[in-house]
């Protein structure tokens, strides 16, 4: 398990190719759990070290540790659902000709996208965890950028292997959909806030 996770940092292409070509549900379940633990640690550390966040949750006392246990799994599953959705829409919009013609084969490909999610985001949470004790905005941004670059690289490589798309499509197709989704959500929130402010 540790060699697999280490491989995601030092030989990521080989690990992603193995995950795609030889899917292992038990292994994926372990990686999912490990990533959720990383999210819990990150969330707990931020709750303790961030003064603004600490002031917001201190009123609820020990219930904040219940949130540390409950919110990370929810965050993980929501993020995974959205990532698979963004990839599905992005591939449909920008690489439709690369999608399998057979519906069952296409469904199986997206199952592998879902299965590979934890592997693609693992490095980003590792580098986030490394950056948390560092009291430097520059270093925090540096580690965040490395983690994000790893995740984008792994996602693009996964899509290249699954659908035969270019690296550019693998990177930007989900990002464009995510950007458009963010704009729509922002507009909806702005309309609601404007409506409530008028009332």
Question: What does this 3D model show about the protein?
Answer:
With 199 residues, the protein is mainly alpha-helical. It has eight helices and no strands. It has helices spanning 2-10, 12-21, 25-49, 51-57, 63-94, 103-131, 137-163, 167-198. The mean pLDDT is 85. It comes from Tumebacillus lacus. This is Yip1 domain-containing protein. The chain crosses the membrane at residues 30-48, 116-135, 141-159, 171-196.
Task: Give a topology summary.
Elements: H1 2-10, H2 12-21, H3 25-49, H4 51-57, H5 63-94, H6 103-131, H7 137-163, H8 167-198
Helix pairs in contact: 1-2, 2-7, 3-4, 3-5, 3-6, 5-6, 5-8, 6-7, 7-8
The global form is: globular
**Helix and strand composition category:** mainly alpha
Identify low-pLDDT runs: none
Evaluate the radius of gyration: 19 Å
What would the average pLDDT be, to the nearest integer?
85
Describe the main β-sheet briefly.
none
Helix content: over 70%
Distance between the termini: 56 Å
Count of DSSP H/I helices: 8
Strand content: under 5%
What's the count of strands?
0
Give helix and strand order, one letter per element, not per position: HHHHHHHH
List keywords for this structure.
199 residues, mainly alpha, 0% strand, globular, Yip1 domain-containing protein, transmembrane helix, membrane
Short précis:
This is Yip1 domain-containing protein. The protein has 199 residues and is mainly alpha-helical. The chain has helices at residues 2-10, 12-21, 25-49, 51-57, 63-94, 103-131, 137-163, 167-198.
